[in-house]
Design goal:
binds iron/sulfur cluster, binds FE(8)-S(7) cluster, single chain, alpha/beta, eight-stranded mixed β-sheet
Length: about 525
């Protein structure tokens, strides 16, 4: 394998960096408050909210643009097995829990196998636009394999964006190589900026050929993470920060983390719930450390949103994930199957398909904007409700209740429909009949929602949802989500005003730990 020197690597694409940085800096002041009815900034931002250069970087990246995630897919290749730190929510028998779902084991690949896999997936799924390396350990603890993979893919599939996720310990020494390979999206998992908090999350790091423990380890880690973030943003590389919300340890502290990463130029902050099950054998799983509830997570995300752009559509993917966020097509692309495939990389067909996707996307936006106009004059009404939506993608209500593995959550207000999260659930319909236990768990997972939008639903679950105070809505089958949601909200307001219904705050909901593990 060719050895890649990080010492001698040149910084790539320097010509427009100042301009891009200026635009990112200008964009930093853009909050989501205001309720003007315009699309919000952040991962929910659209073409009109961002400078063109930044929009070009995020418009078809499913993680950096919430809107794009309905239409474009990503894939990961599991080329990086080693890790250089220990997190208390990780068991190294499984994939990195910073960017992957806990308890999952990926099929590890060589860079050459990974390159073939990318071509195979890109030929089969023309809307796959991003290749990420996110484990199963830390990509920068495996720099040769990681950068060799990027090199091979850049040579054979130049239209695919390259993306990387790291714990940040080895980041400063690799920033120039990252820039050289035109990796223009980097995620750093930052759970603390205070080493005393860090010592409760990281028992040790491996640095300079030795293990370092406790507070000293956390101090080195946070210094490297902050320096790495600054170095990346100085080079115009878009940075996302992932943080795992651990109630009682860093939940309150994450507001400070949010400020620290914003001031260093991070583009997006993704606060994810801790997933800790005893069967994973992690420290937090075994000591009973709980994860947040749905409303605890939302409240923290909301409180940080005034500070910077928040991502709320993360699915905590596998290190070998393939497909739209929320769907898993990795089983179609096992090493055996890929190696047997005849792959032709047809750039023109991919472009033609993506043109169609863009046409569909324009239709979604036009329908939403037209419907939004019907809420004009309602600005003084201070009512918000949540709805859950069963969807297979394309921004439409197009999944049956019984087939949904997750529901997307939208907050409806006089500003329109805003994506605020998703809830993974156990399949209700298994083999064509309803499972009572799973219905209970689904209701608990969407208990804070006023309605659930589905393409179809059977009589039994419908009745039980009504009993739980959740309105099952199938009249918008195969229609656009946001347009339908605004129509529903307008009617809801009219009923409240007419005294037909009383608006009530709903309770909290559960983040289904089991569903994260099995889905
Ligand atoms: Fe992968 Fe991560 Fe790149 Fe996306 S995932 S390396 S930025 S291409 Fe995305 Fe998956 Fe969440 Fe990661 S939904 S876990 S944020
Ligand atoms: Fe596990 Fe990822 Fe943490 Fe390493 S960085 S210990 S792989 S969660």
């Amino acid at each position: 394998m060719e050895s890649l020197s990080t010492e001698t690597a040149a910084v790539g694409g320097a010509e427009s960096i100042d301009d891009v940085m200026q635009k990112i800096a200008e964009h930093k002041g853009c909050g989501t408050s205001g309720g003007s009815g315009k699309a919000s900034c952040g991962s929910g931002a659209g073409e009109n909210d961002l400078p063109q250069e930044i929009w070009d970087k995020v418009k078809n990246h499913p993680c950096y643009s919430e809107e794009a995630h309905h239409h474009y897919a990503r894939m990961h290749v599991a080329v990086a097995p080693a890790c250089n730190i220990q997190c208390n929510y990780c068991n190294r028998k499984y994939d990195c829990a910073n960017e992957s779902r806990p308890g999952v084991v990926s099929e590890k690949l060589t860079p050459e196998q990974a390159s073939k896999k990318v071509l195979a997936v890109a030929s089969t799924i023309p809307q796959m636009t991003v290749l990420g390396i996110a484990g199963p350990g830390d990509p920068l603890a495996n720099p040769e394999k990681t950068f060799k993979t990027f090199e091979l893919i850049a040579a054979t599939a130049p239209d695919i964006k390259l993306c990387l996720s790291t714990n940040g310990l080895a980041l400063p020494e690799h920033v120039d190589t990252i820039a050289k390979f035109n990796v223009d999206h980097v995620t750093i998992t930052i759970n603390m900026v205070d080493p005393d908090v860090g010592a409760q999350i990281y028992p040790w790091i491996y640095y300079n050929h030795k293990r370092i423990y406790g507070r000293e380890a956390a101090e080195i880690l946070t210094q490297h993470q902050m320096r790495g973030l600054e170095m990346l943003t100085e080079r115009g590389i878009l940075c996302k920060v992932n943080s795992v919300m651990i109630p009682g340890i860093n939940d309150k502290h994450l507001v400070e983390v949010n400020r620290a990463v914003k001031s260093r130029g991070a583009f997006l902050h993704n606060i994810m719930p801790l997933i800790s099950s005893p069967e994973h054998g992690t420290v937090f799983g075994l000591n009973g450390q709980r994860g947040p509830t749905a409303q605890e997570l939302k409240a923290l995300q909301d409180s940080c949103e005034g500070e910077m752009n928040m991502m709320r559509h993360c699915r905590q993917c596998r290190a070998d994930a393939v497909g739209l966020l929320g769907e898993d097509r990795s089983a179609e692309f096992t090493t055996d199957k890929i190696m047997a495939m005849e792959v032709t990389y047809d750039l023109e067909s991919r472009k033609a398909y993506q043109t169609k996707v863009e046409e569909e996307r324009l239709k979604v936006a036009a329908a939403k904007n037209a419907e939004l106009a019907t809420l004009a004059g309602e600005d003084n009404v201070d009512i918000k409700i949540l709805i859950a939506v069963a969807t297979k993608g394309s921004g439409r209500v197009n999944e049956h209740f019984g087939h949904a593995k997750e529901f997307q959550i939208y907050e409806l207000s006089t500003s329109g429909a805003k994506f605020v999260g998703h809830r993974r659930v156990d399949l209700y319909c298994q083999g064509g009949y309803g499972e009572e236990d799973s219905l209970d768990t689904i209701i608990r997972a969407i208990n804070d929602c006023t309605a659930v939008f589905v393409a179809k639903i059977g009589g039994c679950p419908k009745n039980d949802l009504v009993k739980a105070g959740i309105d099952p809505v199938d009249e918008f089958a195969f229609e656009f989500i946001e347009q339908s949601a605004i129509t529903y909200f307008k009617r809801y307001l009219d009923k409240v005003k007419g005294g037909e219904i009383e608006h009530k705050e709903r309770g909290d909901a559960t983040i289904r730990q089991g569903a994260f593990i099995t889905a």
